[in-house]
Amino acid sequence: MRITTKKGALGGLALLGAAALLAGCAAAPEESGDGGGEAASDFLPCMVSDSGGFDDKSFNQLGAEGLDKAAAELGVTPIKVESQAETDFASNLQSLVDQNCNAIVTVGFLLAPAALESATANPDIDYISVDDMVDTDFDGTTDAPNIKPIIFDTAQAAFLAGYLSAGVSEAGKVGTFGGMNIPTVSIFMDGFAQGVDFYNQENGTAVQVIGWDRAAQDGSFTGGFEANDGARQLAQGIIDQGVDVLLPVGGPIYQSAAVAIRDSGRQIALIGVDADVFETDPSVGDLLLTSILKGIDVGVHEAVVEAGNGNFDPTPFIGTLENEGVGLADFHDWADRVPADLADKVTALADKIKSGEVEVESYLAG
């Protein structure tokens, strides 16, 4: 099932085509063949991480990779600041302002309030907000004209992962848990549960989802984004309920889930999020059924290059299956255990979501 894209091997279902990533509200950007020349010579791009850190093998790392690629293309050296807690956000942003950054990327939903305050106070700096619209008054528009949101309707790809998981589950139970009950986490969990429900409707089955209640819009959460013993214990509790597929949502907490899976001695499939975790963390590769992808790296790269070349565009980008901003990774080591007819159904389902024949609910759905 492996199909590669122009910018790398990002998906067995070819649902994440990096060349078209920023097709959201405008035409997809062209590949740039130059480094920006003099236009970017004094340009300083910067980034603030969420508390997961730049080595989380997930969304912070993807953001950093996108920044580094853009900086290399522009011929400049970026500045990256890592947050240890939410209390670091405002001071980290101010430190970048004080260092005369021209563009600042904030990685993560929780950074949005601090990003808005900083952007409002510094209208001449371009801000790129990953995972939030920065719409605090909920009027449908970003609250500052110098902020570009890069967000992802990951419920669509998670729907496919839920359908796939229900199809490979022999126990009739699949599980999920998250770091915190915030929209950018719960969107994965809810989309996953919708996909399981759809599988049950189509196939007359009764696969259960442990760890997320769609009616209550609540479930199992660690309370943070650290791979620690608390996350392992939460994963263990879900595993003890008999699941044979597990979706942890929250940066490095998948590492705690992997420990719990290995400790169980059972064959339990792990699902990664944001990056293709098989590629970013081979140590858990044998456990991975697939990963739910967000093109954060490509989105950040394109936005920073535009800013560096004097073409900053604050128009929001919303990644979907249709514009290839979200998708599923290859099945890798699990490929032989996914029936061909199930894989075909997942591909067909993706087409139905793109066309609107199958609707996936989320806070980003139009």
From TrEMBL:
Keywords: Cell membrane, Lipoprotein, Membrane, Signal. Residues 46-360 form the ABC transporter substrate-binding protein PnrA-like domain. It comes from the Bacteria. It is found in: Cell membrane. It is a lipid-anchor. It holds the Pfam family Bmp. GO terms for cellular component: plasma membrane. InterPro entries: BMP_lipoprotein, Mycoplasma_p48, Peripla_BP_I, PnrA-like. Residues 1-28 form the signal peptide. CDD domains: PBP1_PrnA-like (cd06354). Its main location: membrane. Belongs to the BMP lipoprotein family. This is BMP family ABC transporter substrate-binding protein. It comes from Agromyces protaetiae.
